[in-house]
């Protein structure tokens, strides 16, 4: 397990990361989501032991990254934002250099290199100079490097940037597959990617954690209203009155006639969508109306993300107290926002 | 006591090798898999041969000129000033430019070992360059006579002198992201250091004996002169060794400091 506590980074007087804490469980893919300049790369560099932190601790399988760096780094595979490749080396040379650097025993190097090149499909370029590779291939060579020696903990900083859609799908599949025997932290600003791959997400903006939760929970707690679409065959007025009377239905926002006694309704719901949907179906069928189509709008992460990111920065004691109260009274979301006075001073090197 | 010590030393030696060797090997590859090392060595040999042939040419018609390799070495170190920064310029500047510094820093290897591995690789190329020059004494020995002991002394001297300047070049390379800037600054600094003894002997500086002695203590050239004349003095060896150690430690600190100041 990887434990991160109160991780803070100041660049001069600019605060890039503000006291963030979280854990990464074994065999978990944690998504790290945030807009550009949110502090994602800084955080990952600190976790990987490249940047020293201003405050806080990073503990990787029992080894503190500052106190026992060599022990901690043995368990880390890191793919930084810019793949760390030497343009003058051939792919195979590079991988064999990295294998040595990561202390892969000499006898196993060839096998290990073959394994990662197989996994990332870079076998056909292994004799080429890295300088001549396309960005996608460079990225994959960098990824291969991170997997050498099979470290338990993988840090992937935007691993799919620069890949074509086909490769993106491949890399995502690889990451999903890695879950079997690795813990992965994986940053991205592409929402669909995070929701497709990750078990939990951390949403970060301006150095503060805005939310840590599973995607389902985030979506649930942040979609204010839910919308149900249904097509009903039967008399229109009867249908609308039946639907209106079901408990949990807020209003019918539209009802379109589609001919043949078919009406398409859009219904605003309040409360648990699943049970309301069941109730509507039961009522309609009970009243002799047949349902041709029924579905709810899937709440999407994008809205959650935008809402969290754009939430006004909290400042001052009053809001802090308010927040504390909210948290103690058991708010739905685990929002760990700290108060901040100079919210706008963050700057990230990119 | 002795039997206890031996296995311990053996163990640490083995561990270090497995750790640093990949970097050492990679550095050497970057020199020898490209025309880089050969070009520098060839240029150096060309310059050396110029001094060599002018030295021989001066023998004719002059009774006071005494041909010796020590003299040639002494004039050749000026060329080194231009070649050594080119050798060392990429050491750390390129790592930073390529973003591969992250790779080294996040691998289970300490910064001190990275510095040492790179230093040893540069030294290896330097030895390769020096070996190239041995062709001139060999030719001389075939056709004439060479004072071997003095020649060896001169080689030891030039080796230490160059090793010190390599450490200096590495330090300068760790300051910047551009290898060209590293080379230019390296040349300037080395040039200044080369003439620091002349500078300390100027009339102006002589007015302040204390300043003069401080400045003079930085001068490597007079110490090299002893070597080329056939003296191996402990104080000179200590000077070069301590200068190398100080510069390497400084390089280590410079790299660590940049990590802290990044941003």
Give a description of the structure.
The complex is a heterodimer of chains A (about 350) and B (about 260). Chain A is built from twelve helices and 14 strands. With about 350 residues, chain A is of the alpha/beta class. Among the domains of chain A are: about 1-75 and about 150-220, Rossmann fold; about 225-295, Alpha-Beta Plaits. The longest helix of chain A is centred in the N-terminal third of the chain and has 15 residues, at about 105-120. Chain A is elongated. The two termini of chain A are about 30 Å apart. Residues about 330-350 of chain A have low confidence and may be disordered. Chain B is mostly helical. Chain B has one domain. Helix content of chain B is about 85%, strand content about 0%. In chain B, α8 (about 150-175) runs antiparallel to α13. Chain B is globular, with a radius of gyration of 20 Å. The interface of A and B includes residues 52, 99 and 100 of A.
Strand and helix layout:
The complex is a heterodimer of chains A (350) and B (263).
Chain A: E1 2-11, E2 14-24, E3 29-33, H1 40-47, E4 55-60, E5 63-64, H2 69-74, E6 76-79, H3 91-101, H4 106-120, H5 135-147, E7 153-157, H6 165-178, E8 183-188, H7 191-197, E9 200-205, E10 208-214, H8 215-222, E11 226-233, H9 236-245, E12 249-257, E13 262-269, H10 273-286, E14 290-296, H11 301-310, H12 316-328
Parallel strand pairs in A: 3-8, 3-9, 6-7, 7-8
Antiparallel strand pairs in A: 1-2, 1-4, 4-5, 9-10, 11-13, 11-14, 12-13
Chain B: H1 2-32, H2 36-59, H3 69-88, H4 90-98, H5 101-105, H6 111-133, H7 135-143, H8 148-173, H9 179-194, H10 196-200, H11 203-206, H12 209-217, H13 221-228, H14 234-261
